[in-house]
Amino acid sequence: MLQNLVTPICALLDKLIPDPAAREQAKLQLLQMQGQQALQEIQAQLSPILAEARSADPWTSRARPSFMYVIYILLLASIPMGILYVVEPEVAENITRGFQNWLASIPESIINLFGMGYLGYTGARSFEKWRGGAKK
């Protein structure tokens, strides 16, 4: 909200404050307020994710990392599928087609939810490390 008002307020400060030093000081304070508001918005967005990551409940705190383990397993499964394709191409194609159909049956909104959740987790961890609160 404050971001949209910074330019008009700066123009207003140019007209209202004749002293250049006082005017620049007022603009600096305005920009600092804008930065504080942006930081507070980020903290508000990340607070549920951080609370989830700090949860004592193992199902809650391990959900996103567990999802990534599933992805790793799927990636590793592609190695024997490549070997199977060399030996039995038709079987490998049928398995691949079946897996593609299974993935296509998952609603896109669920896939987007997992993607946003993982990105949120990664962003929260990065923010936590930047703030110095992460375990070393």
In short:
The chain has 136 residues and is mainly alpha-helical. The chain contains 6 helices and no strands. The protein has helices spanning 2-16, 20-53, 58-61, 63-87, 89-104, 108-131.
Overall pLDDT? 79
The succession of helices and strands, N to C, reads HHHHHH
The tally of helices reads: 6
Q: Between the first and last Cα atoms, what is the distance in angstroms?
A: 36 Å
The outline comes out as elongated
Given helix and strand content, the structural type is: mainly alpha
The residue ranges in which pLDDT falls below 50 over 5 or more consecutive positions are none
Main sheet record: none
Question: Percent of residues in beta strands?
Answer: under 5%
What is the number of beta strands?
A: 0
What proportion of the residues is helical, as a percent range?
over 70%
Report Rg.
25 Å
Secondary-structure map:
Elements: H1 2-16, H2 20-53, H3 58-61, H4 63-87, H5 89-104, H6 108-131
Structural description of this entry:
The structure is a single chain. The protein has 136 residues and is mainly α. It is 87% helix and 0% strand. It contains 6 helices and no strands. The protein has helices at residues 2-16, 20-53, 58-61, 63-87, 89-104, 108-131. The longest helix has 34 residues, at 20-53. The chain starts with a helix and ends in a 5-residue tail after the last helix. The relative contact order is 0.07.
Keywords:
0% strand; single chain; mainly alpha; 136 residues
